[in-house]
Design brief:
The protein is of the alpha+beta class and 115 residues long. The chain has a single domain, classed as Winged helix-like DNA-binding domain superfamily/Winged helix DNA-binding domain (Arc Repressor Mutant, subunit A), CATH 1.10.10. Strands 1-3-2 form a three-stranded antiparallel sheet. The chain is globular, with a radius of gyration of 17 Å.
Length: 115
């Protein structure tokens, strides 16, 4: 990051801001993490995994991630309906960032408890 002065800096023009706009939301990173860990996942499986998310919020988060081309939604024409979600190539490019977050958390969660 090379910013000459904070007075000239505009957060909305940064790559950080763009990335944050894609993954910002209470459950988006959790959804991406789950898809990274388990590959192809059905809606109800994701709902059970997250637990505290409402059906409406999960559905909205998935639609936003799909619109941003981070996940792929595959719908199968059968009864009952079957819908599966997976990471797109663009979503897979976030895996190193998610892994770095996991590593950081593992490293610091034990030190934070000792204080």
């Amino acid at each position: 990051m090379s910013i000459e002065s904070i007075e000239q800096a505009k957060l909305e023009n940064t790559g950080f801001s763009y990335t944050l706009s894609l993954i910002n939301g209470k459950y988006k990173i959790t959804i991406l993490y789950y898809l990274t860990a388990f590959g192809v996942v059905r809606f109800n499986e994701m709902k059970r995994y997250i637990g505290s998310v409402s059906f409406k919020t999960l559905s909205l988060s998935l639609k936003e991630l799909e619109a941003d081309e981070l996940i792929i939604r595959n719908e199968y024409p059968q009864i009952p309906p079957k819908v599966e979600y997976s990471l797109s190539a663009r979503g897979k490019s976030l895996i190193p960032i998610l892994e770095a977050m996991c590593e950081w958390g593992e490293l610091h969660k034990t030190t934070a408890k000792k204080k």
